């Protein structure tokens, strides 16, 4: 008998019919003799509808009330799944994040889990119930207010519960059959991966692979919780995310896949003094605006002027704020101008095999060059190469890299719409 | 400076536009220098939509999960009102029933308030915030589960909070201008009442007046909380429910109004032994099925047979269960047959003046007789006369009684649709 944590995304519970199907899958797991804890996202469009209502009554809603509002979505979906389980003759009990002991920081809209004290969950399991926990939410340690965990929060709830309950596996049910070597919507022959190490998955998630959110993978790696990514709509085996890259024998180490990301914008600060401390001033200004920076490039200084340029990428949504903040500090920091480009895309090749195979970077650049795709900026890690391209060339970049490294499979992947949170 | 508790029903917050108007009224009260606590029902059709969803996933949903589901409706409306208040430049904080300290019994779907410990509400008031509390819900003392208070629960939440906070007044905002001498939809010249005693309001509510629910009035009377019933749509003065009937000087005591109720059914047990204990068996059987009985009539025994008939009324929804239960026990209890009639209506005349004015019952019966309306069953209290009629004759009965006792006013009441919970 195992303890299984399952998480179902919003599209998996978008209608009463889908809720009934999810309930069947949950009850099936329970009838195999396992203890089952289930985390469900809000139904399909619920969150968007609530956001729309909020916008109608208040242009800039306070974050605390926004959390109170949005968390009702998961209350609804979890109670409905509990009811559907009940109608199949099994016992089920739903808990809010707070009731399940998900204790967080007080940052409304983007709280971090500090601790999980699942006493009530454990008691309900011991009584033979299937336990439902509302994902994406918790209660702040200081003020005991309702908080939300930000994007991908339900996945994080599931992994955190799995860690706290010492579960055997955390199954993430989504609308795809697992992790692929590239997004099957762009690369039709993208190959399904049976197993991915935590490190590779971290790089994939950081580079825009949307199946698992970065924070969820970080949590799983830290607490060593095996994550099983599966489709809600099929019984295919999915992908197991577990173990360290170090455990993969060098000769078996391969390239994992190609990830892409359209969510970033590029900011360039032109004509900055190339002296110690000036780059720091730029990044401090951006950090003060609570903006996360991804890639960074500093050009070599021009001998004639002693000036340099700094380029960084950040989320598109934060781009205008970054530009505004820097422009305001132009006199204080000292630079010529700020350039902004939100028509960019990032494509990344990830794989533990990169370490032991020379020439990967060369092949990477050649493939893009052959397709006439210009590289704007390059950044690498031990197991990743990322470049910026024009957004209009991103899909083609994904396809040529996927082909150049022979990542394709024989099977054409089936694509379903939508993603949960 | 006063402490004011305000309650807004579901129709008052049915749209974003109405939510903004409610917010304006709340902020206006706050700007007059008062501390304000607000209880809001779920938006318009939310509850019906959630009930419909529940029905689709489970024909007989467990009550605990139903409470988890339905309470999200008030979470949504309260957070939205808090946001709307925020956009008007005032501070607002919303709390769930549990956070506001509304502690209840564990009877899901119909829990009773045991205690209110509004520590967090008080703290937020002290910090200058307007406080929103989700109505209709609490947390069970034993299991710490989310509970609901049943019909009219938000009114009860408001009155209970007003009592616990020692508020100066509890304002119930609804879709009518206050309490009238009869339902203005039936009697166009129904007169608005400025003030009604708790006892009179209790009888009105018990006899079908829907403006305030019985439990809310009982709570207000017990804790002596003045209740001010007002319209969300106008600034008319409304009706104050407060004080004891005993405080009304005899010469000023008058008739309060005519109430009606279409929600009951009539059950007659025919041919019961007229010996001690047999009636008790009938009522024990009905009580065991958790059915509330309203009116009761036992005929005089027939000399030839020593048998009698017992008639009672109960909610229409429970009628079939009552008949089934009694039929099952027919042999054990011993009677000839059970008759069932759900085409009945109850009309009641209420007023403290009844005590000191002889002839009220005679006028009552004459008025109905003159209109050709047959009386099926009569029951009276110190300040009330109620009779059963055919449901098709109920509206006419209300009108002729209202006219016979000269209760009409000059103004034609304005009627809005819908009621909250």
UniProtKB/TrEMBL annotation, chains A, B:
Ranges for domain ACT: 267-343, 349-421
InterPro entries linked to this entry: AceGlu_kinase-like_sf, ACT-like_dom_sf, ACT_Aspartokinase, ACT_dom, AKii-LysC-BS, Asp/Glu/Uridylate_kinase, Asp_kin_monofn, Asp_kinase
Reactions that this protein is recorded to catalyse: L-aspartate + ATP = 4-phospho-L-aspartate + ADP
Keyword field contains ATP-binding: yes
EC number: 2.7.2.4
Keywords tagged on the record: Amino-acid biosynthesis, ATP-binding, Diaminopimelate biosynthesis, Kinase, Lysine biosynthesis, Nucleotide-binding, Repeat, Transferase
MF annotations from Gene Ontology: aspartate kinase activity
Pathway field: Amino-acid biosynthesis; L-lysine biosynthesis via DAP pathway; (S)-tetrahydrodipicolinate from L-aspartate: step 1/4; Amino-acid biosynthesis; L-methionine biosynthesis via de novo pathway; L-homoserine from L-aspartate: step 1/3; Amino-acid biosynthesis; L-threonine biosynthesis; L-threonine from L-aspartate: step 1/5
Protein family per UniProt: Belongs to the aspartokinase family.
Functional description taken from the UniProt entry: Catalyzes the phosphorylation of the beta-carboxyl group of aspartic acid with ATP to yield 4-phospho-L-aspartate, which is involved in the branched biosynthetic pathway leading to the biosynthesis of amino acids lysine, threonine, isoleucine and methionine.
Protein name in UniProt: Aspartokinase
Natural source organism: Rhodococcoides corynebacterioides
Phylogenetic classification of the source organism: Bacteria, Bacillati, Actinomycetota, Actinomycetes, Mycobacteriales
């Amino acid at each position: 008998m195992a303890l299984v944590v399952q998480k179902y995304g919003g599209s998996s519970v978008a209608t009463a019919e889908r809720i009934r199907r999810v309930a069947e899958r949950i009850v099936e797991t329970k009838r195999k003799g396992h203890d089952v804890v289930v985390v469900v996202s809000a139904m399909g469009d619920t969150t968007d509808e609530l956001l729309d209502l909020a916008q109608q009554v208040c242009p800039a809603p306070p974050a605390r009330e926004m959390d109170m509002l949005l968390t009702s979505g998961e209350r609804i979906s979890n109670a409905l799944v509990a009811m559907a389980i009940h109608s199949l003759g099994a016992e089920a009990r739903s808990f809010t994040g707070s009731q399940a002991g998900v204790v967080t920081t007080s940052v409304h809209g983007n709280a971090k889990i500090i601790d999980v004290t699942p006493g009530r969950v454990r008691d309900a399991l011991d009584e033979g119930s299937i336990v439902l926990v509302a994902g994406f939410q918790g209660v702040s340690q200081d003020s005991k207010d309702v908080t939300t965990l930000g994007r991908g929060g339900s996945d994080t709830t599931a992994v955190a519960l799995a860690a706290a309950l010492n579960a055997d596996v955390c199954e993430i049910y989504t609308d795809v059959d697992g992790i692929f070597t590239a997004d099957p919507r762009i690369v039709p022959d993208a190959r399904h991966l049976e197993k991915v190490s935590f490190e590779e998955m971290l790089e994939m998630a950081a580079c825009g692979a949307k199946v698992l959110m970065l924070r969820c993978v970080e949590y799983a790696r830290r607490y060593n919780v095996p994550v099983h990514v599966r489709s809600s709509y099929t019984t295919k085996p999915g992908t197991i995310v577990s173990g360290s890259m170090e455990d993969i024998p060098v000769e078996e180490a391969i390239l994992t896949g190609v990830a892409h990301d359209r969510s970033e914008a590029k900011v360039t600060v032109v004509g900055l003094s190339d002296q110690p401390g000036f780059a720091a001033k730029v990044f401090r200004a951006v950090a003060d605006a609570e903006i996360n920076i991804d890639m960074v490039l500093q050009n070599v200084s021009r001998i004639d002027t002693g000036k340099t340029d700094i380029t960084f990428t950040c989320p598109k949504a934060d781009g205008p704020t970054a530009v505004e903040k820097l422009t305001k500090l132009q006199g204080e920091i000292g630079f010529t101008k700020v350039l902004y480009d939100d028509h960019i895309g990032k494509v990344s090749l990830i794989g533990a095999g990169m370490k032991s195979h020379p020439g990967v970077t060369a092949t990477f650049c050649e493939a893009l060059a052959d397709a006439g795709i210009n590289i704007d900026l390059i950044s690498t890690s031990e197991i990743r190469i990322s470049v910026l391209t024009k957004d209009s060339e991103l899909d083609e970049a994904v396809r040529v890299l996927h082909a150049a490294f022979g990542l394709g499979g024989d099977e054409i992947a089936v694509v379903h719409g939508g993603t949960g949170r």
